[in-house]
Amino acid sequence: MNAEQVEKLIWESLEARLAKAGLTKDGVDAAASLIELGIVDSFGFLELITTLEEATGAFVDFAELDPDEFTSVAGLARSLIQCME
Amino acid sequence: MTERLLDYFVRSLERSPANKALWVNAGEYSYSELADIAAGIASAVHSAELSPGGFVGILAHRSLPAFAGILGSLMSGRGYVPLNPKFPGERGVIMLERAGVEAVVLDCEQLDTFGPVLHAMPTSLLVVCLGNANTAQLRQNFPKHRFIQAHPQSPATSMLVPSVKSDDIAYLLFTSGSTGEPKGVPIHHEAVCHYIDNIITLYSPTANDRFSQTFDLTFDLSVHDVFAAWGSGAQLFVLPDRFVMAPAKFIRDHQLTFWFSVPSTVAFMNRFRMLKAGAFPSLRCSLFCGEALPVASAARWHEAAPNSRVDNLYGPTEATIAFTTYRYEPGLTEDLAENGIVPIGSAMPGLQTAILDPEGHLLPQGEVGELALGGPQLSQGYWKDPHKTADRFLNVSDGKASKRWYRTGDRARLDSEKGLVFLGRLDNQIKILGHRVELGEIEHVVRREAASSDICVIPWPVTDEGAGGVIAFVAGYEGDTKALLERCRNGLPEYMVPKEILTPERLPLNANGKVDRNALRASLEEEREKENA
Question: Which residues of A touch B249 (CB under 8 A)?
Fold first, then answer.
């Protein structure tokens, strides 16, 4: 999977949550924290990560990261890609 | 015995004024600098003609003005009432009004968050501003209130030793109430000083220690963070919000030595593989409180923080922060612990526990009943609510003498080896991410907004630590559930807003004619399993 595909997968996984929040992909900054935007809470984030890890086979080492680096769509995609490399 | 909450800070200030007291938003402040900022606040409060003995509201969220605001309130000889930006403005207004607050400390950097509260307050407030304030603009935008900018100054002796008695109120917090209105719990200086003295004796923190600060100020566990640290001359590290559930990097970067959080944090970190063996060698004391601590979580934390003791603390706000403690040892397995939960142990020094039957009679050791707490940490009762006070605080006689107890509503049993074992709630009070929540309060708001009495709220998803949230059922509702959810959002803190509103044709009833919550939960589980299949 390349970066573009991973990001696309994240947006797809977020579809239902975005709809619930009355948002569309275009209205969300890929660099903004999904938690701070209220799109996912901590439990929702757990579910999202589980889905993504199952789909990509990548396991991110969150222990070494600042949450700022993995709670946005762009940051999460970057983290997943690094783990796949 | 310490008499006033402020004394903890003053003691360390006098001993080592240049020592660092606070790290917040990447800024560091010494005891002396913090004292000067707080004195500026106290001076501003003193400058106004306010009713004697009133509270100061804290309109600031885990920032320098928030912590200096607490100190400034205490220096002015008044107790404090914190607000929470996660609560809707409506709830903040109720809290300030019910407390009779006439003065507030405002973090001007958080005006967007707290401005609606100022707008909605029906009475005039003295607003003490910290941060970049344009007081002329504020006066124009909020003409009802009086604004004053606080400037740092050296505290006068009268500020460091205010004329406060041990039975004066140090803080007033509001907890979830079943009638839809939050319940005020006033805690007097004697009660909170008893607690902090115990913590300092039990865990021996020193001026070299580095404490975590993870709790919102509306949660009484925050009082532990702040005053256990400042009572020992240590430095308090306020975790930015984004780190609170994922603090691994923060703990390492700042070499924290004392950790205090809800157990949910451990479960979250474990899921994200942040609890690697030996990950946090700097920690020497790790305390958990606010919800049940699973043995598996305690074990993982112990592996990650091998140099730290791991203690499970238990206590309701009404009995001041925490009341019992249990030291986890790796020998405790899930099989040995009841329901896989770490016991809550025994009462801290000077406090008493008892197990009561439904009529309020003392039960013998080993029997299951309602846990009751007694001793100097009990609140004097709910704020201006003698009815609720009489319901939860009662006098029980053992045949010789009568003693005042607080009935916790928790089921427990006294085990001869493990001490007290927590067995769950007696009623519908649950924990959501560490926050105590009465399902009745959420139901009250859903009922009101849906204009329907045929409703029920259940915890969902349920985890070992408590609940991740709630789901509301509104039978036969034909309106727009999204709009209904939005209306509920205006009356509830975010963590209490239902994750979903479902509209079955009817609610299942049990043999007593009551809504069958178990049947609702079972049908929901079945439905979700089908969806995931």
Answer: 63-66
The per-residue pLDDT of chain A, averaged, comes to 84
Using the beta-carbon criterion (under 8 Å), do B279 and A71 form an inter-chain contact? no
Mean pLDDT confidence for B2-15: 97
> Are B422 and B436 found together in one domain?
no
Distance CA A84, CA A78 (A): 10
- pLDDT confidence band for B514 (50 / 70 / 90): low
Question: Are B73 and B90 in a shared domain?
Answer: yes
Question: Does B245 contact A at CB distance below 8 Å?
Answer: yes
The C-alpha torsion from B263 through B268 and B273 to B274, rounded to 10°, is: -60
- Number of structural domains in chain B: 3
pLDDT at B527 over 90: no
ipTM above 0.85, yes or no: no
Q: How many CB atoms lie within 10 A of CB B4?
A: 22
Chain A residues close to B279, C-beta within 8 Å = 63
For chain B, percent of residues with pLDDT exceeding 70: 98
The one-character DSSP state at B81 is E
Range of B123's domain? 5-238
Measured on CA atoms in the order A26, A30, A36, A38, is the torsion positive or negative?
A: positive
Instruction: Evaluate whether the domain defined by A3-84 bears CATH number 3.40.50.740.
Output: no
